[in-house]
Design goal:
Strand content: 5-15%
Order of helices and strands: EHEHEHEHEHEHEHEHH
Strand order of the largest sheet: 1-2-3-4-5-6-7-8
Shape: globular
Helix content: 25-40%
Distance between the termini: 39 Å
Number of strands: 8
């Protein structure tokens, strides 16, 4: 093994409110091989049982499982993980314009409440498929999780403004070229949020921070700004099992990362809104 993941340890200093939803995870079970041209499966196949240990460690009650790039458009591993997790879990699948109504209903019955657009290397469906995915998601009352290099958000605004479903700008916007609260890119995010159908997810800050940890001050600045602007449109996720980490040294401590990221949300009332109320309604938790 080249990587040893951490599933328990010292509790985070910030106590999560009852009903907290982790909106960004991937999980894997045996029997579902990787599909080209996606990346390989993560070493050790981090599983639902492994994640339950993390839930107990951090105090998480519910979870959203996102289809991993390794499985491209084959959602069978996702459905198996949702069945294993039970009613505490909802899913975000990969669909496209050819996905049938029967398949959409099968996914819905299996706990799926969202569709994924991944416009970065390894993604199964990029922005070129957004309109078709949006139409099908709207018909199912699903959310669309959209991930792209936020440095180009101004170029994508006409397409983003036209989204009719509820949608999420994923992974802190992934502004790979860097940005500040005063940047035009953040003004664009706020304008999308203010339209009423856009959410912004705090997850994976280490993937796009140019200043680096443990405090990620560049991501902290824009996150504090957006949380203050519209806490009712912010989500949070662990990004477990941190698939881009390839060695033990790179693997984050989830308790420390939780304290860092949720420390950017100063009000306990806002934390409850972000951790419980927003994802509960967005992903159809009872």
């Amino acid at each position: 093994m080249t990587i040893e993941r951490i599933y328990t340890g010292k509790k985070p200093a910030i106590r999560l409110p009852k009903g907290t939803v982790d909106t960004q995870t991937h999980m894997f079970l045996p029997g579902f091989p990787a599909i080209d041209p996606g990346p390989p499966l993560p070493e050790g196949l981090p599983s639902p049982d492994d994640y339950r240990r993390v839930m107990d460690w951090l105090g998480i009650d519910r979870v959203v499982v996102t289809q991993g790039n390794a499985h491209q458009g084959d959602n069978e591993n996702l459905l198996a993980c949702l069945a294993d997790m039970g009613d505490v879990a909802r899913g975000v699948a990969v669909i496209d314009g050819t996905t049938s109504d029967m398949e959409l209903q099968r996914l819905h019955d299996g706990g799926v409440r969202g569709a994924r657009i991944m416009d970065l290397p390894g993604g199964a469906v990029g922005l070129e498929g957004l309109e078709a995915v949006d139409a099908k998601a709207k018909a199912m009352d699903w959310v669309v999780a959209v991930q792209f290099d936020g440095s180009h958000i101004l170029d994508h605004m006409p397409r983003l403004i036209a989204i009719e479903s509820r949608f999420i700008i994923d992974h802190h916007g992934k502004f790979f070229s860097g940005t500040t609260p005063d940047s035009a890119e953040i003004a664009a995010v706020k304008s999308l949020i203010d339209r009423g159908n856009c959410w912004f997810k705090f997850a994976g800050c280490y993937e796009s921070s140019k200043t680096g940890g443990p405090d990620y001050p560049d991501i902290a600045a824009i996150s504090r700004d957006l949380a203050a602007h519209a806490p009712e449109r912010i989500l949070w996720g662990t990004n477990w099992p941190h698939n881009l980490a390839k060695t033990t040294a790179e693997y984050p401590n989830d308790a420390a990362l939780l304290d860092t990221v949720l420390g950017w949300i100063e009000s306990e009332a806002d934390r409850k809104t972000i951790l419980v109320d927003n994802p509960e309604s967005l992903f159809g938790f009872s």
